[in-house]
Amino acid sequence: MPRLLVDAQLPPALARWITAQGHEAQHVSDIGLVDAADTAIWQHALASAAVVLTKDEDFALRAQLSGSGPPIVWIRYGNMRKTELLRRFAMVWPDVVNALARGETLIEIA
Questions:
Q1: Looking at residue 72, what DSSP letter applies?
Q2: Exposed / middle / buried, residue 95 (Cβ in 10 Å: 0-12, 13-18, 19+)
Q3: Contact at 8 Å (CB) between 74 and 54?
Q4: Buried b / exposed e along 23-55 (16+ C-beta atoms within 10 A)
Q5: pLDDT for the residue 56
Q6: Sign of CA dihedral 71, 5, 101, 72
Q7: pLDDT per residue as tens digits for the range 47-99
Q8: With a threshold of 0.70, does the pTM exceed it?
Q9: Which phi-psi region, left, alpha or beta, contains residue 70 (left: φ > 0; alpha: ψ -120 to 50)?
């Protein structure tokens, strides 16, 4: 399983939850990229072989056009409390892990 990089629109608690599941995950705030442009996050993910977890549609569109970028997990949930986000994410996490293992590069969670 590749490392995961959680984007700024998602809480750091999601990265902690993923780590608790036995996977390597960081939030952009952990590495000084919380205010970084999408391009900087994209480049960091490429350089560190990380999967980007994001609510930002721009990453999904860029992934579709690029063909050579980092894998993207595009989370399309509306705004909700952190506990509800983590509850929902826990339900789909096995599917995300399986999709990444199959080599999928754009995984949409709605």
A1: E
A2: exposed
A3: yes
A4: bebbbbeeeebeebeeeebbebbeeeebbbbbb
A5: 94
A6: negative
A7: 999 999 999 999 999 988 887 899 999 999 999 999 999 999 999 999 999 99
A8: yes
A9: beta
CA distance 72 to 100: 10
**How confident is the model at residue 1, as a pLDDT?**
76
Distance CA 70, CA 105 (A): 7
Structural domain boundaries enclosing 29? 3-109
By DSSP bridging, strand 50-54 and strand 25-27 are unpaired
**Residue found under tokens 């990229």:** 33
How many of the other CB atoms lie within 10 Å of CB of 10? Answer: 20
Ordered alpha helix ranges (H), the chain:
12-20, 38-47, 57-66, 82-101
CA atoms within 13 A on the CB side of 79: 1
Q: How many domains does the chain have?
A: 1
Is residue 6 within 8 A of residue 28, CB to CB? The reply is yes
